[in-house]
Amino acid sequence: MAAAPGRRSSTFTRLLRHGFTDPSAAERLLQSAELEPVRADPVFLEALGATADPDLALLGLVRLVEAQDGRTAQRELLDTLIAAKPLRDRLLGVLGASEALGDHLARHPRDWQALVTYEAQDLHPGVEEFERGLAEATDPVSLRVAYRRCLLSIAARDVCGTTDVAQTAAELADLATATLRAALAIARAAAPDDAAAARLAVVAMGKTGGHELNYVSDVDVIFVCEPAEGADEAKAVQAATRLASHLMRICSETTVEGSIWPVDANLRPEGRNGPLVRTLASHLAYYQRWAKTWEFQALLKARPVAGDIPLGEEYVATLAPLVWHAAERENFVPDVQKMRRRVVENIPAAEIERELKLGPGGLRDVEFAVQLLQLVHGRADASLRSGTTLDALKALASGGYVGRADAEQLDHAYRFLRSMEHRIQLYRLRRTHLVPEEEADLRRIGRSLGLRTDPVTTLNREWKRHASVVRRLHEKLFYRPLLDAVAQLAPGEARLSPDAARERLVALGYADPAAALRHLEALASGVTRKAAIQRTLLPVLLGWFADSADPDAGLLNFRKVSDALGKTPWYLRLLRDEGAAAENLARVLSAGRLAPDLLMRAPEAVALLGDGDGGGLAPRSRAHLEQEILAAVRRADGGEQAVTTARGVRRRELFRTAATDIVASYGTEETPAVADQGALVDLVGGAVSDLTAATLAGTLRAVVRDKWGDTLPIRFAVIGMGRFGGHELGYGSDADVLFVHEPRDGVGEQEAVQAANTVVSEMRRLLQVPSADPPLLIDADLRPEGKSGPLARSLKSYEAYYRRWSLVWESQALLRAEPVAGDEDLGRRFTELIDPLRYPAEGLGEDAVREIRRLKARMESERMPRGADRTLHTKLGRGGLSDVEWTVQLLQLRHGWAEPGLRTTRTRAALAAACAAELISAEDAAILDEAWVLATRVRNAVMLVRGRAGDTFPSDGRELAAVGRYLGYGPGPAEEEQAPHTGDMLDDYRRTTRRARAVVETLFYGA
Predict the structure, then answer these.
(1) Could you write out the DSSP letters of every residue in 534-603?
(2) CA 535/CA 529 separation, integer angstroms
(3) What secondary structure does DSSP assign to 839-861, as a single string?
(4) According to the model, what pLDDT value does residue 980 have?
(5) Conformation bin of residue 331: beta by default, left when phi > 0, alpha when psi is -120 to 50
(6) If exposure means fewest CB atoms within 10 Å of the residue's CB, which of 75, 111, 605, 881 is most exposed?
(7) Tell me: the pLDDT tens digits for 291-321?
(8) What is the DSSP string of 425-441?
(9) 389-423: b or e for each residue (b if 16 or more CB lie within 10 Å)?
């Protein structure tokens, strides 16, 4: 009886209750004649409601019934469906989870009978059972049909929960093995002469070799052959290549029944560029001489599966010693970590959040971590040599190489993520690792995993939770057992042996593992709350240290800071509760000497590394710094105490700037490294210059207050010169200045000169008094008459000198002059005095231009240090700072009078203005800017790494690697001239500066 208009039928309501999303369409399907025998059966509707997608299952069943050959066949299917619960659950379960297998059943309507059997061997079939299922296949088409029939039974056991995800993956690998054997048999039957000429072994790699295959995946293989007895080797290799190629086509080509899966042989030596088939001796020669780290990692999963099995076993046995000694290769761990990063970097940005396999916290994180530990410890412990991820993880936990709780959490997370991957692929039997965005798809996946209450929300929550577990634990896997090796463990808990702990530390880049273990013991042993927090922090910190060029220094510095701050209540709480603080500290402590040295002088500056929004690391403005320093000067008892306070602020702010620079250059797990190198140079130059100016302002106020009270008998100004005036100071730069004064009304010239000299000498003395804070050196050598002239001059004296005696080099030096401290009006009038000198009307005459070129050429020949490499000297070398700055300054001297944009003390701003005024092409300007920025970054890096200024790259291997890491070249320790990333860095520097020098030759020398 039909429902009244406007009212829903009881069937509609029942369908909604059973999980149908389109009850109207489902009701129409249930009314079809084909389902008449079962539509009223309550068991039938209940079974549909138990599937992942009841609508899809019902539609698939109707298609299957319609496809049966006559009423008798239809009745047989429906009677069995109602009478046999195992078939009902399996068939409807598959139809509700896989549209593709529903299509297969509609094309091959008798294949449902493969799901009827419910016997012991049917529950967990192996290779032999699958081989029997494929035995009748004699061509690619029949092989596909038989393969899908076997796949149907695997999927049925999977969706019904008869097998867990690991057993399903193993069955899929066994079915792949049987399929490769069947395909090889077809290929051999088609070419019996080739089959007789060669012994061909098919070695499975990847997930097939690891016995953990997906529903849809490339099947990775390597082919190895030997000539049959009496056969020529070259001809045997050709014959084996034809067989292997035919096998690949049989599996991969699309037919009327689709394809099975691609057979991928790109893991072979030389990849797609190498021969498809090699002899065992050829394989061995390649792996001994040429193989890269990732190729040994791939061999962890090598397993002979088809063809000549004894030959395949010989291949695995022959290469095994090389695999298990791969961890002894130089840069082994950084190579593997770099590979993982490269995988992530190649994921399109729009997909990374949905990437189940390769994204952060994805399946590959677990697999990489497990394989890395296998390669490190499998040398000495054969129990770890499993190709299956979960089996290897279990063995690592049993041996104490991984914490049991960590292993258990990772096991659960990996199983959940693999189950999601299986369900995503099963739907349409397509190779994908992306979590779909459509709600209907998410609902089907969630229900298929048993999440029946709000499946979409629950699925997303569980997925993110498990991904978070993986992201949190996969790095800790390496490091937590190192702490257990030196800490007190519960009775019966396995731990790393001292040898294994040292072995792991060496593999992770620690040069002195014994010292590292002592530091860990000092930090993490004991039962105090402090030790417990350290045991939580250190596994992650050790990973961040290992990401640097000097992990040993990072750990040592962390111990020193912890010793100094261990009793303060906020220190460990800051590191534990603010993730950014711990990572920032690890980066800073392992990036070189300068930042840790600054921090050790006042460890409480660690607090600057907190503040999750990054505000703690943002450099302070000059106004803010001056306000703080001047307030401290007012409170101080005497000049020395005032300047000591000012120098303390300077040290703290230098640390803040260095930390900002390091963190921005390295990047963090949440934020990539800053790509704009010029922005970092400007940030450091501006911050250090502002800090220097504020320090000088405070020191000047302290001297005046100490000697004269509130009023100095003269007006006094400090003029910044060189990189200081240009806002381009580096960490190790002196402060180039001029001192200018003017007597106040009623003050005689002699008194004024004496007061000015007293101020200058006292400022220089106080800023260099030995203390825990770095000195600030004042350099006044750019003053008129250089070292022979007075340190301070009156404004009138400057005017007289510049009018009568000024040389062209002094006009050039004045391009960078800018008032930085003292009397603002006096500073402004000094600027007005020198503007006609540095921006001469109508520009420089030709004689002056020739003089500047002569001076530059003389400087290049005379001032370059003996033995220095001209191609790598950042200041005086080819295409370095001097080349770029003199070129820009010549443009300013010639055109500054006409182009207001050129009237700036900043090199990059002047270069941009010259480009805007079309005095230099955009291409040439970009070349000069890139070289100047790079040379400045190198100088900053050298100071950060070595703790002292330098104009050339370090010769020490570790220091050179640390400079490379700061500049964005790969992480990891390196020995001199042996690290590929440091070689790339030096090549890139030479290439960049060579191009800049070519521009300088044209623009500056007129060549």
Answers:
(1) HHHHHHHHHHHHHTSS-HHHHHHHHHHHHHHHTTSHHHHHHHHH-HHHHHHHHHHHHS-SHHHHHHHTSG
(2) 10
(3) S-TT---HHHHHHHHHHHHHHHH
(4) 47
(5) left
(6) 75
(7) 988 899 999 999 999 999 999 999 999 999 9
(8) HHHHT----BPP-SHHH
(9) bbbbbbbbbebbbbbeebbebbbebbbbbbbbbbb
